Amino acid sequence: MTVGMEPVADKGKRGADERQARLRSLAAVDEVLREPAAEELLTHYPRALVVDAVRTVIDRLRREILDGEVAGEGTAARAADLTPAALVPWVARLLETAVTPSLRRVINATGVVVHTNLGRALLPPEAVEAVMLAASGYTDLEFSLARGERASRQDHVHDVLCTVTGAEDALAVNNNAAAVLLALAATARGGEVLVARGQLVEIGDGFRIPDILRESGAELVEVGTTNRTYLRDFEAAWTERTRAVLRVHTSNYRIVGFTAEPALEELAALAHERGAVLVDDLGSGALAGLPLFSEEPSLRESVAAGADIVTFSGDKLLGGPQAGIVVGRAVAIELMRRHPLARALRIDKLDLAALDAVLRLYLDAEGVVERVPTLAALDLPLEAVRERAGRLRGWLEAKGVAAERLVLIDTVARAGAGALPVTEVPSVAVSVDVGGDADGVAAALRLGTPAVVGRVHEGRLLLDLRAVGDHELEGLATAAAAVL
Questions:
Q1: What phi, psi does 150 have (nearest 5°)?
Q2: How many percent of the chain have pLDDT more than 90?
Q3: pLDDT above 90 (res 22)
Q4: Which of residues 128 and 21 earns the better pLDDT score?
Q5: CATH architecture of residue range(s) 125-371
Q6: Per-residue b/e over 120-132, b at no fewer than 16 CB within 10 Å?
Q7: Model confidence over 174-219: pLDDT tens digits?
Q8: Is residue 203 within 8 Å of 259, Cβ to Cβ?
């Protein structure tokens, strides 16, 4: 045995003894509860919640002691001197976390305007007010004040949807995937649905068009090739079991180059000639006349082309709440309205209130862009974004961040939410020199108050101003300066 080295058996025994000593040092639940600071907690929180928090802290420390014995470091190594009084602050922090709502305000400095992970579209003030009204009191959600009897919640958005899209009928459900599911279940269950092979998209979180089709009870029939599909391909694939043609706008990717697809009018004529329906899934729902939306399919054009059912999202380029919106021919929409799934997929009253308010802004085609935050952010002139970035840099300097660390750079923003996938929106960011720890600084910003989400590029932190509102600049500067 080497001189000065502790025998392995002795070292193991000493470790076991230390572990037992640490475990014995953990206070019992009642010992913690007798602490004056714990009694104070009991005046602010339900007793059962406090007791549960104490047990959680003790159980976690016990596990860390056992785990720390393997590593020999960490919280477990400090557990021996944890008295009942020392555990109370941990319990207090756990209780505060438990009763604090999980959703936090976030400043979006990523450059992605409709950021799916950050809640997608921001609502205009009119929609926020409508949600508060619907949430804080009784409303005529499903009641006719004129007749004094039950009515449909769809009545609140039906007429305005028909007005802004030119459709005969309209329906709102909880999201666009639900709208497509309901459309296919109501019109094609037990039959075949023809879809161009290049349109078998996967949307967010792994949901795929073939999966939605399968759940609707309809059978998918792929038509044509990935990049080129002709009307004759649909004619060749048609059988006596064909119930519908589904066109899916590839809103989150593009096939470019040697491509071809039949016009919507041709598909509508074919479907109607053979007693089937045409379902047009537009996805993003670009209804405003922004030049940026020039390559997006038009809702009005889809309706005018003869599509029986047109579906789109409320919370993408429309700039409203999460919703699946359906417009089209009355016969097809009525099938959806009467289907058993309609109730399971119906829109919530708060989303309905917000959607109603947003849609009414579209009655003013010229004024809607500046009144809907999503549209305003996407349409904001580049020089206005640059001026906003300059103000942020000035505030950061005023709060003590060295000027040489801050550079304004031209960047590319995105619409987001799977919309306009190849469209680059010019933007400006404050590029911050963070001394080689960009990821650490970005993490600290995310955990600050308010939380700030930026992006890291080539070792620098970028705070893109395209999606940051003027009213958020001071909060962004304060949060960033505290970290920097």
A1: -60, 145
A2: 77
A3: no
A4: 128
A5: 3-Layer(aba) Sandwich (3.40)
A6: bbbbbebbeebbe
A7: 999 999 999 999 999 999 999 999 998 887 666 788 899 999 999 9
A8: no
Query: Residue 454 — pLDDT band, cuts 50, 70, 90?
Result: very high
The correct answer on CATH 3.40.1190.10 for the domain covering 377-483 is: no
Using the predicted structure, report yes or no on whether residue 1 has a pLDDT greater than 50: no
Quick one: 256 exposed, middle or buried, by C-beta within 10 A (0-12, 13-18, 19+)? exposed
What's CA 140's distance to the chain center, in Å? 29
| Predicted TM-score (pTM) of this structure | 0.87
**Range with the poorest average pLDDT among 63-77, 158-172, 195-209, 407-421:** 63-77
**What mean pLDDT, rounded, does the chain reach?**
91
Euclidean distance between CA atoms 475 and 407, whole angstroms: 19
In angstroms, the CA 71 to CA 407 distance is: 44
393-423 pLDDT tens trace: 999 999 999 999 999 999 999 999 888 887 8
Contacts 24+ apart (CB under 8 A), 47-54: 49/95, 49/98, 49/99, 50/91, 50/95, 53/91, 53/94, 53/95, 53/98, 54/29, 54/87, 54/91
pLDDT at 330 over 70: yes
The dihedral formed by the CA atoms of 102, 103, 107 and 112, expressed in degrees to the nearest 10 = 120
> What is the length of the chain?
484
Greater confidence, 4 or 121? Answer: 121
Neighbours of 162 (CB within 10 A): 16
Which segments of the chain belong to CATH 3.40.640.10? Answer: 125-371
User: Confidence band (pLDDT; 50, 70, 90) for 250?
Assistant: confident
Q: Residue 84: which residues within 8 A CB-CB, separation 6 or more? A: 27, 31, 32, 34, 35, 38
Residues of the chain with CATH 3.90.1150.180: 377-483
Q: Quick check: 68 and 17 in contact, CB under 8 A?
A: no
